[in-house]
Amino acid sequence: MTKLSDWHIMGVLAIAGLGLPFLAPSLITQLSFLWLMVIFALTWDMLGGRMGYNSFGNIVFFGIGCYAAAVVQRDAGLPYFEALALGLVLGAALAVAAALLFGAALLGIRGHYFAIGTLGLGITAAEVAAGWDYVGAGSGMALPLYPGALGQREFFFCFSLFAVAIVCFLFLRWLYGTRFGLALNAIRDDQDKADAMGLRTTPIKVFAWCIAAFFLSISGGLAANMIGFIDPRDVAFAGATFGVWMVLMAILGGKGTLWGPVLGAIVFHITQELFWTYLLGWQRVALGLLIVVIVVFFPQGIMGWIAERRAARQGAAP
After folding, report:
1. Is the pLDDT of residue 254 over 60?
2. How many CB atoms lie within 10 A of CB 251?
3. How far apart, in whole angstroms, are the C-alpha atoms of residue 255 and residue 299?
4. CA pair distance 143, 210, nearest whole angstrom
5. Is the separation of the CB atoms in 274 and 16 below 8 Å?
6. Are the beta carbons of 254 and 302 closer than 8 angstroms?
7. Which of 299, 297, 307 is nearest to 247 (CA)?
């Protein structure tokens, strides 16, 4: 896509993100989750798409953000918004520190071993939270009530998640155009050659994971307050849902592309909502079949499919 068309698409999405909550207030919760899905897909694609490291552990940073915000709001004794802001900052710091620690340990391994290691990381985090009384253990944690007028809460968190998604997209768009973005692609294409060329690949990989952890923790703190309750396995460290969905959305849209994760998140979220609306009772079966279809028939994603068709047309042109 040209830069001009990039800005056109961003303009349409900005207008939709700002206007739809007012035009369709009954869909505001679905819109909030849509922006959350966009953040999930963009941050996962940084490792899985751009760098070739398929992580099932990114959900850990989301969960850290959930619990950090909740604990600060419970214990700091501050007004709601001050406590929320402090919780988001603390959660981001903890998530980045965790990415540094786990990245140094896990990003030295590759391929399936890395994927399995991160899967174990997510499972371990969920079990620790489910057994830790300080954060409510298996009973979960309730978040404080939003202090504004009735109905304002949904708008506040919808626009907040939309803002995080926009900042995340623009930041990654800029980052992928720098030497750091080229280094990520070099690691994906051939890490041994990248090492031989003098790239310090492990610090680059760890730094990329820290960036993903930062945005995931911020979104986790906001999402926890939007939902109003943290369950360790179904919300904070929901590896079977959020953890898998972020992978699928990036693959569906086209991993390793700028717009692929965004497109994948939109298509996946709308499809999932339709399943929940029209296939109640069978929605998980339909979602499971959708996952199979995505992996089997769209391994290159929608953007990859478009690129193939465009190349075929150009090749057939006289």
Report:
1. yes
2. 28
3. 9
4. 26
5. no
6. yes
7. 299
User: What confidence tier does 98 reach under pLDDT thresholds 50, 70, 90?
Assistant: very high
Q: Which two tokens stand for residue 82?
A: 């001050």
Strand partners for 142 = 229
pLDDT value for 310: 77
Integer Cα distance of 131 and 166 in angstroms: 36
Provide mean pLDDT across the span 144-173: 92
Question: In this structure, which amino acid lies at residue 295?
Answer: V
Q: How far apart are the first and last CA of the chain?
A: 23
CA count, 13 A, side-chain hemisphere, 162: 21
Tokens of 226: 């939007």
Integer angstrom CA distances of residue 245 from 45, 75, 225:
12, 33, 21
Strand extents, DSSP E, 113-162: 141-142
The Cα diameter of the chain in Å comes to: 72
| 227/161 Cα distance (integer angstroms) | 13
Claim: this prediction has a pTM higher than 0.70? yes
**Over the stretch 38-61, which tens digit does the pLDDT of each residue have?**
999 999 999 999 999 999 999 999
| 58 vs 316 pLDDT, higher one | 58
Q: 270: which residues sit within 8 A by CB, 6+ positions away? A: none
